[in-house]
Structures are given as C-alpha cells and as structure tokens.
Specification:
mainly alpha
Length: 155
C-alpha cells in the first residue's frame, strides 16, 4: 500500500502538483534504505536535494560602504550641475542668435531698384518652374506605369 502511495505521489511530483508535505514524504522514502528496486533510479535525485540543502555558502558578499554612496552622490551632483549650466548656456546662446536676424527678416523682399526686383522675381519663378517640371516628369512615369499595368492586368 505504501509503495502505491509513493508511486502516486511521484507521478504528481513530476507533474508539479505535489504539496510540501508530499515532497517531504518522497524525500524521506528515498533517503531510507528500503527503496523498491524499480524506484531506485530516483534515489540519487532526492538524495542530491537533501545534500544541497545542507550545504552552506562560504562566499562572502561585499556590501557597499557608506563612503561609496557619498562619492556617487557627489559625482551625480557635479554632473547634474554641469548639465544645468550647459542647458542655460545653450538657451541664452540660441536666444541671442534669434534676436539678431529678426531685423534682417523685416527687410527681406524689399527692393529700391525695380530692375533688381524684376531679376529676383524671374530667378524665383525659374526655380519654381524647374521644380514643377521635375514633378511633372515623375507623374509621367507613374502614368506610363499605370498604362503598362493595365495592359498586363486587364481589368
């Protein structure tokens, strides 16, 4: 009867459904000298668990000293101060650059000489025309692709 119970608990153990009390019962059974012959293959496994449980770790874990924390805090505060100063400097530098061109932007596009204005206008329109022609060329490729596609895939 005990052998049937051990086999039942062992089956539950391999399915991961045993309780702590049942696992203790298995460990006690397999650590005893009278183990059934067909279950002897599991004896080293349960013997290993009991051996490992008795082992003590002798490795010492170094704990951080309070002095190390003070050093870290000091370096972090120095780094944070540097970042703040860098941010303030960048802000002021950028704001000074933005105020100077504001005067030049108000004068942009005004010409005293009508011939200069005409040349500048012609130059801008030529640039615009060139870019529009490039765009139209791209559309022509798309139209050619559509026609080829329609020939191949008759809709």
């Amino acid at each position: 009867m005990e052998l049937d119970r051990i086999e039942y608990i062992l089956e539950k153990y391999f399915q991961g459904e045993t309780t702590i009390a049942e696992e203790k019962e298995l460990k006690d059974y397999f650590s005893s000298p009278n183990v059934a012959q067909h279950l002897e293959q599991y004896q080293p496994m349960f013997g290993y668990f009991s051996q490992v449980k008795q082992q003590k770790s002798t490795q010492e874990i170094p704990l951080p000293r309070p002095r190390d924390k003070k050093r870290n805090v000091a370096w972090l505060s120095i780094a944070a101060s540097a970042v703040v100063l860098l941010g303030i400097g960048t802000y002021f530098f950028a704001s000074q650059e933005n105020t100077a061109p504001a005067v030049a932007q108000s004068e942009l596009g005004t010409y005293d000489n009508p011939e200069e204005a005409l040349k500048a206008t012609q130059k801008a329109l030529a640039l615009l025309s060139n870019n529009v022609n490039i765009g139209i060329g791209s559309v022509q490729y798309i139209n050619e692709y559509e026609q080829s596609k329609n020939k191949i895939f008759k809709q």
